[in-house]
Structure formats: C-alpha cells, structure tokens
C-alpha cells in the first residue's frame, strides 16, 4: 500500500510505519504519522489528522510535525504530537504542552517477586489507597506554606532532598535530575500557587494512577540488566502531573496570548494552538512558568514515591532500602524544552514540544543520566490497567526521526463520555479481579469506567511500531497486580 485513505485525507507512505500528509494550504512543513495500518484505522476516526496538519501552520516549525503511534484527538495539538520550533524565529505553544504540565511516569524497582505479594494484594492496595491522596480537589502529602511552594517551583527535587523526601540517587535517576534551571516562580500566578499548595503528593483523577506491577517479559537482557530489571520482579508505576497548579499556569497564559497577541492567534487555523512568538516577553515568561510547573510535578511524584516506600516498608515489615525500592527513572510528558538538534546538517536550538509524548534519547546523548548513557535513556510507557506496560530505551534512530521522542501510552480509542456509557465500573473492577487477579481501588466508579481496558488502543501494537522504527526499543514488559486511581 502506497497511500492510505483517511476519510477525506490521503496519507502517502514514506516507508514502513511512516505516513505523510503533504505540505499544502498554509502548511510550513509536511506532517507525518508514525503508525501501522492497524493503528491508522483508529487514528483516522477522530480529528487527529486535522490537528497534526494544523500544527504545521505554527511559525518556525522545522522538518515535520509528528504524530506518535498512540496519537488521538486532543486540544490544538493531538495527544501524541511532537513539533520543534526555532527558538529564535518560531514560537512556544501552551496549547502544544497542555494543561497538565509534566504529566509523567516514574518506575520504582523492588527486590520483591510476585510470589511475595500473592494473597496480600488487597492489603497492599488498601494501604496504598490510604497513604496516597487521590481524586479531584485538594489534599496532598504535605500542606505547604507559600515559601515552600516557591522553593519547590524553583528547585524541584532538590527541595525534596533537603526536606528528607528523597535521597541523592532519586535525583540522579530522574529526567533533568528533577530540576529545570530555567524555572521562574515569579512568572507563576498567585492563584496557581494557591491551587498547588495543598496538592503536593497527590494523584488527582482521570487517567492518573499508582500501579504495582510484575515484570513478565524481558526482551533485551543486557539493557534490562543495566536497568536492574528481571522477570517476576515487582515494580511500582506512578503516573500523575502538576495538578491544579499546572492547569492554572496553562489557563493564565492562554488568556494572556489572547490579550497580548490577538493578531498572531487569529493567523492560526485553531485557537487551541495558542502560541507566543519566540523572543517575546510573553514567550519567555511562559517558558519560565512552565519550567516551574515541571519542577512542581517532579516533586509531586517524588512525594507519592516517598509514601509508597513507607507503605511497602510497613506491609512487608522491613525498610524500603532493604526492599531495593530505587527509582529506575522518571520521564516527562506534556512539555516543551529548549534542545539542540541537527536540522539540515546544522545545529539549531529548538523548542521541542512533546504533547503526550516521551523523550527517548539514545545512548551517548549528554542529557541521559550517567548510569544509562552507555545503553540509552529508559522510556516508560503505561498501557491500560488490564493490558500491561512497557519499559523501552531510547532508540538509535530517534534523534533523526522524531527529535528524540516516542509514544507515551496506549492512546485512547474513545472519549470519557462514551466510555462511561459503554462500561460499567463494577463489571470492570470485578472482571479484572476474577479473570486477571488485578485489584483496583478508586475514589470514583466513573474513573474505573473511563479507564476500562477497552477504552485504549493495543499497547503491544504501539510498542511494535516504536521498536520497528528504532525510536524506542522494547526492553521489558510488565503486568498489573494492583492499582489505585482517583
């Protein structure tokens, strides 16, 4: 097949799993979709293709706007969208980052095996649910003062280290060592700070979760050994973001763009692409505020990990250190970073936007922590709570193909509204327990229905495409044991 008919749009096959929307009608560059034909059948069912084409209208976009294999309709950018804009002559787009700034995933290793927890799943899930705040609104591990919030926004995980919620090894195994140095707390509104003050160390709701998993498969023994993973090992996955603070940062700057750059906004095909011109005061302020929200999200996940360590220590009656509860890695989604990439043979500084996409740098890139620089950056991709998740490593071709990026999950097949109409929460919860021995506990039955396994694409197919393209190489697969949600 050399073309793919997507209900009015024709995608041209560049090579296996790479499909292009040719440049036309105001597009500055072509758009590309990285997907198998099976995944394209789902991607074409919503506005994903229109949205990735719209991204190419943003000024300064280079090479291609990209949709990852898990792509689906979002706001402005599709979820799974990657685009790089020139940092001097382009723009930075809050719409290309999203409301949940630095929604991300971290994996915590243990020396426990599945046999160690068998029969104690309910005890463990209940203890985790009691220790980790979930759901909408307030409630966190710490209720911080104004000065503490300022320090968190400025210092990220360095604050957690000072306060005793982290150890040095945690920072060494986190993207950017858990701190964006360009953070500017003064660019974050007081309303945003107030919203975040009592949410530090909380999961929130929606697709956020904490999940105990077992490693079921290892695909690359040498890389898995470098990551400290082996079959039947228990690990913990934590997925959440910057909570109300990040949402408010995005809202604040979307309104400011409307007020300060209306002509620029009117030139775009979708107002949800809202962007500030590179070099403008507003672009610089947004970047500083976004980096501060990134720091906040890293601390949020760190405090949840701290609580998780305490729970495991209590349930298994030994210290978390003795249980080997070390951080494998923490990866960020929903983010825009200044990065240097080779474009047409020349080094350029770019705002690389990853909206529901994961950085996937290969071996040798200086941003990869020293512990993993020889093998490549760990990439953690959660699937649905009935299908399992994957650990990848940054692929050798990722810099050339995707600005060092890959998918961030399985990708939704249906809206939350439709999911609640189609799935019954009690049936989902009971089915997972009886058929798969997966124990799920949530604040809301609606959340379970919204996150039913049938709501998501086939994560195995998403990973196959990533691996085939050489942008994210599969290392290990995990399967849920117990899960808590908002």
TrEMBL record:
**Where along the chain is Mn(2+) 2 bound?**
239, 333
The record's annotation in SUPFAM superfamilies points to:
Hypothetical protein PH1602
Q: Does the keyword GTP-binding apply?
A: yes
Q: What class of enzyme is it?
A: ligase
Query: Which cofactors, by name?
Result: Mn(2+)
Function recorded in the entry? Essential for tRNA splicing and maturation. Acts by directly joining spliced tRNA halves to mature-sized tRNAs. Joins RNA with 2',3'-cyclic-phosphate or 3'-phosphate ends to RNA with 5'-hydroxy ends.
Which molecular function term from Gene Ontology is one that the record holds? metal ion binding
Family, per entry? Belongs to the RtcB family.
Which keywords does this Swiss-Prot/TrEMBL entry list? GTP-binding, Ligase, Manganese, Metal-binding, Nucleotide-binding
Q: Which residues form the active site?
A: 408
**Any one biological process term the GO annotation gives:** tRNA splicing, via endonucleolytic cleavage and ligation
Q: Does the keyword DNA damage apply?
A: no
Residues binding GMP are 207-211, 333-334, 382-385, 389, 408-411, 485
Q: Which reaction does it catalyse?
A: a 3'-end 3'-phospho-ribonucleotide-RNA + a 5'-end dephospho-ribonucleoside-RNA + GTP = a ribonucleotidyl-ribonucleotide-RNA + GMP + diphosphate; a 3'-end 2',3'-cyclophospho-ribonucleotide-RNA + a 5'-end dephospho-ribonucleoside-RNA + GTP + H2O = a ribonucleotidyl-ribonucleotide-RNA + GMP + diphosphate + H(+)
Cofactor, free-text remark: Binds 2 manganese ions per subunit.
Region Disordered: start-end pairs: 172-202
This enzyme's EC code(s): 6.5.1.-
The annotated subunit structure for this chain is: Monomer.
Q: Where does Mn(2+) 1 bind?
A: 100, 208
Supply the name of the protein. tRNA-splicing ligase RtcB
